[in-house]
Amino acid sequence: MFGYILPNLESLGEEEKLRYHAVYCGVCRSIRAHYGQRCRLTVSYDMTFLAMVLGSLYEPEEHASQKRCPVHPLQPRQVAQSEFTDYAADLSVAMAYHKCLDDWRDDHSAKARAAAVALEMPYRKAKRRIPQACQAIEDAMAGIHSIEEAALGESDDSRVPEGCLAGGVVNLDAAANRFGILLGSLFAYKDDFWATDLRRFGARLGKFVYVMDAVMDLRQDQETGSYNPFSSSDRSIEDFREDLELLAAATADAFERLPLERDVHVLRSVLYSGIWQRYNAEESKVEHG
Fewer CB within 10 A of the terminal residue: the chain, N end or C end? Predict the structure, then answer.
């Protein structure tokens, strides 16, 4: 359900691009420091965005440096690290582990199973470092999975899961809200004055991401018989734009309530255009055959 929280690099100046990449590299190096070289593959734009939002709100002390790495062995890259790049690193490993488990359950992919096995020990370490966040991830993914199983008629439990109506009819809002609540809890890094606003923003962003992911996967899921809340719909991808725009507007409204200054233009490039890049590309592909 991730991979949509992307920056629109074309809308950024050179300094802003460098700044974004510095935080991205900071998350990557934090992953290496705590989990080893192989786990750097879990670095994501999604968790970079989370680190930038929290960094903008709390303005922690940052350690700036220039480093080479296997991906950029010749030209040193700017690196910005803080407590929030460490937190994003922990979440990157945790979310990657659960994504692999989810892919394995959905597709019985040997590749996903092997990746989950490889991430099992790093995930155990993440659970020691951020136990509450990992428990929230486990609870949310289990809840979403039970809704999806019931919708496909694969559940062994005769009880109807919360969010799934009798007869396997899915309450889309309940499933999307479950993921939204998860993302909201991950953004609420501290139980402080800003926790309510961060939870609201994360919840709305998570709901948008869940629905966007369902829309983008609709055609493939219909072909494979995998769960998708829109499987019975005959709508094409462009028919969902208005629904997605309403969710994106609610997300932006929650974002603008946060008193952010540092990196705010970069963050807005994500929320006002970056999150639409994959959808726009797919819509254009459909329109042009």
Answer: C
Residues 6 or more apart in contact with residue 21 via CB below 8 angstroms: 77, 78
Q: CA–CA separation, 235 vs 237, rounded Å? A: 7
pLDDT tens-place string over residues 98-147: 999 988 887 778 898 999 999 999 999 999 999 999 999 999 999 998 88
Pairing type for strands 164-165 and 169-170 reads antiparallel
* Residue ranges covered by each domain of the chain: 9-287
If we measure between CA atoms, which residue out of 24, 139, 164, 12 comes closest to residue 81?
24
Question: HSE (CB half, 13 Å, CA atoms) of 75?
Answer: 2
- Could you give the CA distance from residue 188 to residue 136 in angstroms, rounded to a whole number? 12
Give how far Cα 219 sits from Cα of 53, 132, 176, 214, Å. 33, 36, 19, 9
Cβ contact 2:96 at 8 Å? no
Q: How far apart are CA 201 and CA 203, in angstroms?
A: 5
Model confidence pTM above 0.85: yes
Helices (H), 36-109: 45-58, 83-107
Look at the chain and count its residues: 289
Identify the bridge partners of residue 165 per DSSP, sorted by sequence position: 169
One-letter amino acid at 169 equals V
